[in-house]
Amino acid sequence: MTTTRPIAGGAALRVARLDLTLLWRNRTALFTAAGLPVLFAALLFPAHGKKAGGMDAALLQGTGHLGFFLLFAVFMNLVNVFTARREDLTLKRLRGTALADADIIGGGVLAAAAMYAVQVLALLVLLGAALGGRFPADPLLLAAGLAGGAAVFALLAFAVSGLTPNAELAQLTVLPIMFACMAGAGVMFPLDGLPAALEEACRWLPLSPVVEITRTAYFGRDFHDHAVHAPVGFVGGWAACLPSFAVLAVWLGLGRAMAGRWFRWEPRRA
Q1: Which end of the chain is flanked by fewer CB atoms within 10 Å, N or C?
Q2: CA dihedral 24, 117, 127, 45 (to 10 degrees)
Q3: Is 225 inside any structural domain?
Q4: What is the span of the domain harbouring residue 178?
Q5: What's the total number of domains in the chain?
């Protein structure tokens, strides 16, 4: 994955607008990126009033969904987009225009990030208005964690796209990362009941640090500590999330390396 010159803001925005237009016309991709989050959000209502980890189960799952929706809006969406456009030669044709590589890639990421931001805001409103939630204790920490997660999953999408033979298989190649994050990142249930070694391994999944940061920022409690969740202030919240940010930094480095090695601009050949 190469970049020949810096992103030109206007060009990247035009590519992003085109990507959103094409997504709206592709009902299957639109359902994956936007419809599945709506279904998961609807499943929060039956959990409201129940307890999980000493907290309202709907709020615990809902704050996990703030990170989990990255898989739909960013990761799966970008794998589908870049695999399909590589195979139908759209990426190759775009590289023959005045657009820089960074414009083409940046436009796709901007479109995915914009859709994800809308989902985050809608979910925060749902948590507060319908599920008895609160305004995030530290909105800046929340934004930092979600932005870091978006960067990680965008890079992973570029890498997985390069390994995906065609658009039809894109729905399958994303599943290992999706299921691992769904089961092991603490989105659906607390991890403190797992054996110590397994719990520590789950901390290194790419979604786990995002979920920890998101919940710490939302509740104002230390969710890097999976058992106690002690209250933290502004400085304490950032300090508690330093290990989570360190894991994100590791994944940023790995994602950049894998994307640089595996991302393809032209169709794969047998």
Answers
A1: C
A2: 30
A3: yes
A4: 9-262
A5: 1
For the segment 127-139, what is each residue's pLDDT rounded down to a tens digit?
998 888 889 999 9
Residue 212 has pLDDT above 90, yes or no: yes
- DSSP secondary structure code for residue 270 in this structure: -
- Distance between CA atoms of 133 and 140, rounded to whole angstroms? 18
Q: Which two tokens stand for residue 186?
A: 């603490």
9: CB partners within 8 A, 6+ apart: none
What is the spatial distance between Cα 208 and Cα 214, in angstroms, rounded to a whole number?
A: 10
CB burial string 61-87: b at 16+ within 10 A, e below: bbbbbbbbbbbbbbbbbbbbbbbbbbb
Please name which of 98, 55, 41 lies closest in space to residue 190, comparing C-alpha atoms: 55
Residue 238 placed within a domain: yes
- Indicate the SS3 state at residue 1: coil
